[in-house]
Amino acid sequence: MTPRHTVVHPVTATGTALHSGVPVTMTLSPTASGSGIVFRRTDLNTDIAARYDLVSETRLGTVIGQGSARIGVVEHLMAAAAGAEIDDLLVSLDGPEPPILDGDALSYLALLESAGMREQDQPRTAIKVLKPVTVESRDATASLLPDDTLSYSYELSYPVIGEQYYAFAFSRAGFKAEIAPARTFGFLNELETLNKMDLAKGASLANTLALDDTGVINRERQRFADEFVRHKILDAIGDMALAGAPLIARFEGKKSGHTTNNALLRALFADPANYEYRQS
Length: 280
Fold this sequence. Notes:
- The chain is α+β, with helices and mostly antiparallel strands.
- The protein has six helices and 21 strands.
- It is about 25% helix and about 35% strand.
- The strands form six sheets. The protein has a five-stranded mixed sheet with strand order 2-3-9-4-5, covered by helices on one side. A five-stranded mixed sheet has the order 12-13-20-14-15, covered by helices on one side.
């Protein structure tokens, strides 16, 4: 029997929010066994559970909401928590998003590791996928398939980037080395339009791999030749963590993103025959 885990002590970081561009202070704190991961907007005095059914928007990031309160771009932090196998965590924010930090999950993972990990008094429960579940949107597909272990694969195709494929069998060490360092990316020709939509105001050459029609502009920030597909897997891990418990399944994505990822979890839980809970 594997116990649930939380952090030992609070840890705080301050940085810029990716989309709103405002400064945000974030504190990651231990919480009671069985609480799950909860985001707290301290400026609005509102708690929002990190759950797939509270996702209110998936445009350029996964947004969770409760009433009029919203928290955007939760996927990088959720991926780090999943990668560290943290089950219970309170994330306190005084703004609309976690700080983007380095645009990866490794910076969040470093915070969690500095906070330490402690065992809780309840066993960890996993979600075993029993039947194939697939969603499609235009040329994008995402699937959860029955398997005995957790793994991810993704097929990417973008102008300039080309086609990339990566497969990842989940482990904590593998996540830290292969997936967590992969930064988010974006195209310079879209930036002005996004800024007019109040998006990507905190994006910079320090936290985002920027592309033009010749390739990566800030190549000195690139950590892997296939960093783009690795970041897509990072996003998928973060989005799947909104299931509320670790999955035992094989995730396969092709040109998919936050919208299809959320639709996939909604399709999984729409039929109780698709899954079962079991102690891990």
